[in-house]
Amino acid sequence: MTKLNIGIILGSTRQGRVSTQVGEWVKEIANEHGNAKYEIVDIAEYKLPFLGEGTGQEPGIVGWNEKLASFDGFVFIVQEYNHSLTGALKNALDSAREPWNNKAAGIVSYGSTGGARAAEHLRGILGELMIADVRVHPTLSLFTDFENYSTFKPAEMHMDNVKAMLDQVVAWSGALKTLR
Ligand SMILES: Cc1cc2nc3c(=O)[nH]c(=O)nc-3n(C[C@H](O)[C@H](O)[C@H](O)COP(=O)(O)O)c2cc1C
Questions:
Q1: Distance 44 CA to ligand 1 centre (A)
Q2: CB of 118 within 8 A of CB of 149?
């Protein structure tokens, strides 16, 4: 059977962001776990305009929609900004519709309280986009899983949680294929 394609979406775009380290770590675990094909998706590369500012036909928007359409499911790397998700991720979510629908997603979040508030906000948005978000949710602490809030040194215990989350994403992404 062909493997499902899962996009690992980096939710932050700022210079000096740590999301690249977290995304690479998730991808490494996912590749070893080997139950799907995984690819990192960097919102920053698409240079998305704010929704409504352009024609909607900019290459970035078209490319973003095409890239999302190529996936069966997603893992969102979510960081907490002012108790919510980043503006960049919200805009990226708003910048597509059908390519999100009837797919599954997992969340890996980080922040002072594990990014829990941002992740819960994201869950509400995912419902509207008809993305089924799975239960297992690895939460990383800025205080104990990073050195100086900048060098990612995750505690060992998170690995099993990431694998369990991936198993749920793959199971639901496969099941929802019947609707796509
Ligand atoms: C504008 C801004 C607001 C933030 N607000 C919060 C917050 O409300 N709660 C929290 O836990 N961390 C907060 N942080 C800290 C971020 O979670 C932390 O800097 C993290 O590394 C950001 O992810 P990034 O490096 O991928 O951009 C904030 C950071 C920024 C830049």
A1: 17
A2: no
Identify the CATH number of the domain defined by range 5-179. 3.40.50.360
Nearest protein Cα to ligand 1, atom 18: 111
Provide the whole-model pTM: 0.98
Of the candidates 126, 137, 10, 12, which has an alpha carbon nearest to the alpha carbon of residue 76?
Answer: 10
How many angstroms separate the CA atoms of 176 and 162, rounded? 21
Domain boundaries, the chain: 5-179
pLDDT tens per residue across all 180 residues of the chain: 789 999 999 999 999 999 999 999 999 999 999 899 999 999 999 999 999 998 989 999 999 999 999 999 999 999 999 999 999 999 999 999 999 999 999 999 999 999 999 999 999 999 999 999 999 999 999 999 999 999 999 999 999 999 999 999 999 999 999 999
